[in-house]
Prior knowledge:
The complex is a heterodimer. By secondary structure, chain A is an all-alpha fold. In chain A, 85% of the residues lie in helices and 0% in strands. By secondary structure, chain B is mostly helical. Chain B has 3 helices and no strands. At the A-B interface, helix 3, helix 4, helix 5, helix 6 and helix 7 of A face helix 1, helix 2 and helix 3 of B.
Amino acid sequence: xxxxxxxYLLMVLIWLSGCAALTNSQRNTVVNYAKLTQAYTQYPSEVxxxxxxxxxxxxNMPLAYSQANDTLVHSTxxxxxxxxxxxNQNVQRVDDAIGVLRQYAxxxxxxxxxxxPDGFGKNAELLGKSLDNVATTFNTxxxxxxxxxxxFGKLIGxxxxxxxxxxxxxxxxxxxxxxxxxxDTLIRLLDQDAQSAFNTLNSRWSLQKQLIKAQHTAxxxxxxxxxxxxKTYYSYELNQDMVDMIGRxxxxxKLLASTPKAMSNVYQAHKSVLxxxxxxxxxxxxxxxxxxxxEDVTKLQSEYQNLINPSQK
Amino acid sequence: xxxNPLALNTRDLITSVLxxxxxxxxxxxxxxxxxxxxxxxxxxxxxxNFKIVVDDINQMATTINQHNVDLQxxxxxxxxxxxxxQNLSNRLKQVSDTITFxxxxxxxxxxxxxx
Lengths: 313, 115
């Protein structure tokens, strides 16, 4: 048993927990980024959906105040409905396009989760307990002159658990660094694409807002020649609709302004995450990690010493 | 009808709303005898614009999608690595399980005096 070389074990552990491993803080940064990005990805398609819905109402507004038996009105309503449905299919395309970013964020979250080696740790502990049971059973059953040492099982289980967990953390950190580094270029390009798409949408939306004014003006003109009762009734209805429309337009303006801005932040945050995980860990982090490693190894060594020199217990 | 106080009150209300709206959406319209033509033109313009709106969303999806193939490939690689890590963890667990089973069997064998 004295051949069990703790210095070698220590070197392996230092290598495994060295510069490649991520600190808890770095891992949390990646997880938080991944969760926030997933939350963001629902908004671009919401913008597209509301854009289509608002425009559908804009084009239908004059039709609502037209004669119901007008066949031209009827065919126009059907045509608008068909265009609206086509628009909603395109909204789905927007969602699919931005959905890739959602999948990327989900994958990052899965890759950075600390839960990967958990089940393994429990089994290593069970293994240790079983080994100890064997030694106890052997000593009780055969009552040999030299008793088998009890407690080695736990030591072996702890070593397997520690080395396995460190190894997986090491692989995890190497993968995260590689993928986030490659993802950064793509997120930058995706941000550029999204900004370009939102700019086009913004310009068109300004024109649509002018159209709302024109529609309202035209409809009020239409009511001008009607008798007072009809004019009063329809004007009231129209203005109610306009008040509702203005409220939605104001809300949509905010959404349209903040969505591309948030996309920029998705990219900026990705850059920060990349910088954070590429950064050499701070002295405090390294000391904390080494301290943890020291405690783990010291505990193992102490258990080993107790085993080979039971009298010192 | 004009002498109906309720109608007059309603008209005052509408007028006040229109004045409010004028501040928000611009000057009030003036009566135009050629209105039906103007209305027809506006309707056409609306429909035309609505089609453009739908095309915009389509274009938006195409633009956003431009670099998604690369991102999709990267996502698949990340998923692959996550699976590999999970498999690695599972393999280590299996090894541990097997050893646990053997040790348990050995212990039971000894306890029963078979070994």
